């Protein structure tokens, strides 16, 4: 009896409740979305299966505490890099191209698995280990020591980023960069380094975007980019001129969300067809069938999740845990902002799913692994006598 009470006190029931709510939203959205396409598979059942697998992943993650994750960080990072390498050199019978990208292993009746989804969490652990070790060994913080830490973070990120770009997978590459940026911001590196570096990168990005719009021939000639690679940018800025190509999804997404108005059309009453809307465009389905109210509920759930993760980061006494939480927050926040943003023309379309709601086993298991580590932080959180937590 005493053991059960101790477990109940340490277990993060609030996070369990949020995951249950995400599953309900996901099941409703996917079950409705799959009626609008010619599918021979019940994706709700498969999504429920992946949620069960994700629950097992969380249960396994609970067996390890923060010190063990810190020791395992480089092994997990190395395993992720190895999987990405094997993926690139594997024959197409094992790792076929999908939509021009070689990002998945085929596992027969189990479907496919995307190693980069797990690499994101492995990278978060590795970066947290890098920063923790650096700060522990740095007796006097200087501009030089901060620059050394920035180089360590950059190199650790560059290795998986290069493999993922090689696939090529722009969406996941952007998530990797978002994770790195979020962790840098909380790493203690002086703003004297951060501001000029990111300002310079922002200027470069602005110049490239301007060249894509005004001088694409220059980029084609001197960088090797192909015209079709600029299609998503053009479709983002002017989708109606590309309505039969790259702009098709965006126009239909805008029509779906706009037609939902305040209260939506109702469950399974969606009328706007969007191919594969049970994956990356699940938010369009929710917006059409449940309107502004339903979309607001989904966004509110993500706000609650981010708040919960932020509170975990602030409550922890371990710097390593705080850096891991920062990486997970950055990953989920970018996913949500990019996915919802692309459905309402705020951002260009990329293949980034909506966490815990879009259909997809690899994405869900990767996110569950990340939350499993958060569950572990809460479960193994140490309190001390005379601490403020006991008062």
UniProtKB/TrEMBL annotation:
This is FtsW/RodA/SpoVE family cell cycle protein. It comes from the Bacteria. The keyword Transmembrane helix applies. Keywords: Cell shape, Glycosyltransferase, Membrane, Transferase, Transmembrane, Transmembrane helix. One of its GO terms (molecular function) is glycosyltransferase activity. PANTHER family: CELL CYCLE PROTEIN, PEPTIDOGLYCAN GLYCOSYLTRANSFERASE MRDB. Its EC number is 2.4.1.129. The keyword NADP does not apply. It is found in: Membrane. It is an enzyme of class 2 (transferase). The chain crosses the membrane at residues 12-33, 48-65, 72-91, 103-128, 149-165, 171-190, 197-215, 290-310, 322-344, 356-375. It is a multi-pass membrane protein.
């Amino acid at each position: 009896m005493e053991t059960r009470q101790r477990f109940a006190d340490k277990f993060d029931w609030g996070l369990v409740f949020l995951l249950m709510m995400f599953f309900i939203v996901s099941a409703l959205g996917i079950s409705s979305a799959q009626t609008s396409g010619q599918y021979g598979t019940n994706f709700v059942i498969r999504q429920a299966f992946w949620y069960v697998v994700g629950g097992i992943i969380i249960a396994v993650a609970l067996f390890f505490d923060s010190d063990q994750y810190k020791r395992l960080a480089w092994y997990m990072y190395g395993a992720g890099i190895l999987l990405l390498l094997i993926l690139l050199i594997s024959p197409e019978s094992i790792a076929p191209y999908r939509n021009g990208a070689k990002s998945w292993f085929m596992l027969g009746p189990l479907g496919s698995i995307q190693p980069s989804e797990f690499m994101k969490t492995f990278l978060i652990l590795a970066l947290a280990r890098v920063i923790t070790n650096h700060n522990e060994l740095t007796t006097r913080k200087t501009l030089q020591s901060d620059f050394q830490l920035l180089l360590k973070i950059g190199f650790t990120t560059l290795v998986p980023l290069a493999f993922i770009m090689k696939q090529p997978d722009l969406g996941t590459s952007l998530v990797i960069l978002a994770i790195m940026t979020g962790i840098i911001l909380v790493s203690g590196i002086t703003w004297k380094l951060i501001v000029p570096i990111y300002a310079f990168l922002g200027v470069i990005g602005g110049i490239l975007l301007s060249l894509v719009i005004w001088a694409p021939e220059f980029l084609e000639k001197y960088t090797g980019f192909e015209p079709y690679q600029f299609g998503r940018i053009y479709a983002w800025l002017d989708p109606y001129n590309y309505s039969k190509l790259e702009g098709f999804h965006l126009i239909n997404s805008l029509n779906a969300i706009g037609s939902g108005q305040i209260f939506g059309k109702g469950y399974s009453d969606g009328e706007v067809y969007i191919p594969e809307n049970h994956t990356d465009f699940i938010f369009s389905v929710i917006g059409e069938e449940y309107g502004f109210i339903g979309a607001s509920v989904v966004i509110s759930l993500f706000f609650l999740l981010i708040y919960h993760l932020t509170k975990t980061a602030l409550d922890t006494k371990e710097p390593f845990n705080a850096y891991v939480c920062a990486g997970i927050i950055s990953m989920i926040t970018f996913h949500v902002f990019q996915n919802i943003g692309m459905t309402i023309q705020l951002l260009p379309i990329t293949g980034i799913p909506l966490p815990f709601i879009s259909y997809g086993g690899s994405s869900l298991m990767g996110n569950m692994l990340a939350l499993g580590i958060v569950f572990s932080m809460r479960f193994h959180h140490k309190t001390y006598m005379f601490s403020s937590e006991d008062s």
